[in-house]
Amino acid sequence: MGIDPDLSELGEAATAERRLWCAALALMLDDARRYWQGKKNHSANTDELEEAFDALCDCTWMLRRICTHTGHDPEWICQGFIRWCESMA
């Protein structure tokens, strides 16, 4: 998809906290994709998948909070996710 954070590019200077937030962003993206594609995840119920989807489509406070810690632009993440959804429709 192209908007997943690449933890290998963080290098030695990356903090454990930033890695954790990047993992949270990656999980949010994965959950939202699973919701869009109608797939269930054993670690998340349908409500959690929908919440991740809504966060990415609406650029909610939850995504903005995560991006504050990862250094990603939340608007860019949202736009990329929406474009991906449109390409999969």
- Described by its quaternary structure, the protein is single chain
Number of helices: 4
Mean pLDDT: 85
Low-confidence segments, ≥5 residues, pLDDT <50?
none
- Percent of residues in helical segments? 55-70%
Describe this structure in words.
Helix 1 packs across helix 2, helix 1 packs antiparallel against helix 3 (61-70) and helix 2 packs across helix 4. The longest helix is centred in the N-terminal third of the chain and has 22 residues, at 16-37. It contains four helices and no strands. The two termini are 14 Å apart. With 89 residues, the protein is mostly helical. It has helices at residues 16-37, 46-58, 61-70, 74-88. 24% of the residues are buried.
Secondary structure layout:
Layout: H1 16-37, H2 46-58, H3 61-70, H4 74-88
Question: What's this model, at a glance?
Answer:
By secondary structure, this protein is mainly α. 67% of the residues lie in helices and 0% in strands.
Defining traits:
globular; mainly alpha; 4 helices; 89 residues
